[in-house]
Amino acid sequence: MADRPAKVLLTGASGFVGRATLAALARRGLAVRAVSRSSVTPTADGVEWRQGDLSVPDGWDRLLDGVDVVVHLAGNAGRGTEAELMRANAEATAMLAGAAATAGVSRFVYASTIRVYGHQGHIGATSQPAPADAYGRSKFEAEAALDAEVRQDRMACSVLRPPFVFGADRAGLLSLMVRAARYGLPLPLAALKNRRSLLYLDNLADLFAAASLEPAALGSFRLPAGEGLDLTYGELFARIGEALGRRAMSFPVSSGLLTFGGALLLSRETLRRMTEDCVVDGAVLADRLGWKPPVTPTQALREVALRN
Prior knowledge:
By secondary structure, this protein is an alpha/beta fold. The protein has a domain at 7-163 and 199-225: 3-Layer(aba) Sandwich (Rossmann fold). It is built from eleven helices and twelve strands. The chain has helices at residues 16-27, 60-64, 82-102, 134-151, 173-182, 201-212, 233-244, 255-265, 268-275, 283-289, 297-307; strands at residues 7-11, 31-36, 47-51, 69-72, 107-111, 122-123, 156-161, 164-166, 196-200, 221-224, 229-231, 279-280. The strands form three sheets. A seven-stranded parallel β-sheet has the order 3-2-1-4-5-7-10, with helices on both faces. The protein has a three-stranded mixed β-sheet with strand order 8-9-11. The longest helix has 21 residues, at 82-102. The protein is globular. It starts with 6 loop residues before the first strand and ends with a helix.
């Protein structure tokens, strides 16, 4: 690996995080074999595209041939039954990790989730996982499978646990905030005092690229990822307004009314996540990798506001 660019196998390469990570790997001069379940059209020089379903182990030898590092982003983002999540996230990851170790891969970089910590409000390097939902449990089971490879000294594993990831192409509450700020519409956010950590898509992608370059001799880790962007919903809305050159106004609504209205539109678990703290300290991971966010919060929010 010292004499040539590392060959990276990137799963989930055509997804929301995958596309950004593909670009980040290419910027660092890494040769990439990109895997997607859907048919894809090559978008960058030096990228070798392969179509494949990682739940089916046939063909993994060919996918892993000559690969130094696996960056595993593919999986189920939380839709379906717990059994379906376990198959897509835990079982598929375990099979891929086993095949990668057998093929001589030196490092396996895995996209986990902050939800392995359950409902802990403030999360740091010493926080202990306590998943409280099916998605969090499925990702934690995948981490356990990687631990098994580490204990057998077959492969170094890097597990990143990011909080909410925002980007220009993501729908949902952030997109609603952008539209409301653009048209001067106030939102009922002033009563929400909880703080949540956000991680910009391009910064997360750069973190994955940095982790893929870490020498295997430095060993394994499982750490929360963050960039220090911790805001209330009202503060986030105001920052989006600033990015658009508008004044984004929030007004208070009683917590009871907000909970009642939210329950009509959102699942109980989603509503709970929206109304509780989730502040992530990613300093230990950043220090380990010598990493600084390439995009500032102001630049990130402006990019999202202008492109949504």
